[in-house]
Every structure is written in C-alpha cells, then in structure tokens.
Design a protein that fits this description.
single chain, alpha/beta, OB fold (Dihydrolipoamide Acetyltransferase, E2P), Rossmann fold, Ribonucleotide Reductase Protein R1, domain 1, 3 domains, two-stranded antiparallel ribbon, 13 strands, globular, binds guanosine-5'-triphosphate, binds zinc ion, nucleotide-binding, Ribosome_biogen_GTPase_RsgA
Length: 307
Amino acid sequence: MKIKQNNSPSPSPGQKGVIVAHHGIAVDILFASGERRKVKVKRRAGHVVGDNVAVQEQRLTRLPRKTQLCRRDSRGSVRIIGANLDVLGVVISHLPLPTPGYIDQAIVAAREADLTPILVINKKDLEGSEPFIAKIRNTYTGIVDIFAVSSSTGEGLDELTLFLGQGFRSFFVGITGVGKSSLLNAICPTLDLQIGQLYEAGKRGCNTTTVSTLHSLPGGGELVDTPGFNEFGLVDISTEDLAGYFPGFEDAMESRCRFRDCRHRTEPGCAVLQLVESKKITRERYATYLAIFDQLEAGEARFKTRR
Ligand SMILES: Nc1nc2c(ncn2[C@@H]2O[C@H](COP(=O)(O)OP(=O)(O)OP(=O)(O)O)[C@@H](O)[C@H]2O)c(=O)[nH]1
Ligand SMILES: [Zn+2]
C-alpha cells in the first residue's frame, strides 16, 4: 500500500524510538539511547513492528511511515504486517511447497508497497530440493535476487547475510514450516527463538511463532520475524495494476499494449499475449497471472462468503 505523505506533520513531543516487538496488548520500544521499554497499546491501535514512535510517559504517538506492507488474512480482514521495510524476503522450500500463487502474490505485494522482493529457498540440504531450486531459478532469475540456503548446514547464508548487511530492514514471509525462524537463528546466532515450540493457546493452526519481533543483525541490517501464515491475500491492488507488478511481465510492460487499460486477456495488440505466443512468457506463468487476476476480481465477494 503506497503511503500518502502528509506534508505538514505536527512535531511529536516525547522520546523517539522504534517498535521492536508486538505482543498484542503491549509493544517493546527501543529508544535511540539504547533503552528498551514496554508500553501498553490498544489491541486494534494498528501499531506494527518497525513503526517509529514518540513516547511521552505511557502515551505513544506513531510517526509517519515510509512504507507499509499489508495482507488480507483468510477471513478477509486487512492486516498491516510491517512498517518502514526495505526488503521482503519470500522464504520458500520444497517441503512444504508454497501454496499456488504464493510467491507471485508476495512479489506483487512487495512491489506495490515499494519493497524489494527477494526469494530465499531454504532446506537446500534436503533431498529433492535440487529440481525445486532449478525450477525457481528458471522462473525468477533476472527478475528478483534468489538465495538458495540451508538454515541447518549454513550453506548459502554468507551471500544472504552480505545482501542484508547493506543496511536493509527486511521482513521474511513464508508459510508455516519453511524455516523462517530457523533461518533467522542461523543468520543471527545470538537469538534464541524457540523453534517449533511456542504456540498460541486456543488458536487453530498452532503457528510456532507468537510475537512479531525486529532484530539487528551482526552483519548489518535488520530482520523481522512474524507468525507464519499460509495465505498472502492481496490488498488494494486493482486488476489493472496487477500486470505491472507481476514477475516476468516486465518486458511486456515496457513494450506496451495497444490499450492503456489492457487487462491482457483477449485484447488486440496486447504485449503480454504476444510474448505468450512467442513463448517468451510460458503458458504456466500466464495461467498464474490469470488465476491471481480472477482472485482479485472475485475480491470482496470471496472473502465475505468465507468464514
Ligand atoms: N533439513 C532442514 N530442515 C530445516 C531447515 N530449516 C528449518 N528446518 C526445519 O523445518 C521445521 C520448521 O522450521 P521453523 O523455523 O519452525 O519454521 P517457520 O517457518 O519459522 O515456522 P512458523 O514459525 O510456524 O512460521 C523445523 O523442524 C526445522 O528444524 C533446513 O535448512 N534444513
Ligand atoms: Zn495487454
């Protein structure tokens, strides 16, 4: 979601800091002085990890965001999952496999929110990872940076650490079980996240991570760890805009379709369809575009019927 800049933000009095952990009813704030303090918040106040805030006594004022990344949960509610981020690390593995469209939706959402998406293929050490890695490279090389790693053996982590160390604040998403927490621990060994042990009592699905947290990396940059989720519903992306963010459609977008509002389905003079014809865009990629397109079009109605 693009941020509309407020040209005249009123100066916020108080001590400035950044939210480094969100516990639902309280947040941990790290102040410039190095002090870390817990401040109570309303559950629906909308503060997220990465938010810059000003605190006066127990009163917290949120400062304007540079970026914010939103998703729709399985009930259709809009959730802001991170603020002031630079990079979206989409963590995937062959075990469990990403749900259909997950990677593309995450990339589309990142680009729409002005974040740089990267793909992190975890569990490189496991048997059966090779064909998966090859397929991902085949589809996404030249489109996004790809890092094939193993949180278990440490393979490939140096390259990723170097990338993140450029000073990016990154947010890792991925379905439950791909190894986000393991990855974070491997990159930042001083952390002691309890992998696969924590779960939110009474909640279905038992995500192994309960709080959202922001961490400084020893090699530079910052990382956020969040509860896993299986769905990456798009928010505020129109069917018209989808192709402009869709990974693999970049050349078609440059050569332009005859109609400015082309949806790239049956329109004459469509640059996307021409590349599909000439096999520069595979049928499979095009089908994924159409599937996400249909999903966006169905939009609200779909979420309203789901409970
Ligand atoms: N073989 C292998 N197993 C891994 C690797 N990374 C993680 N695992 C295992 O995969 C399982 C899930 O790892 P987690 O780090 O809890 O996954 P997560 O994505 O953080 O899960 P949520 O917190 O539920 O979102 C654990 O049993 C890990 O030991 C890896 O690189 N190789
Ligand atoms: Zn077109």
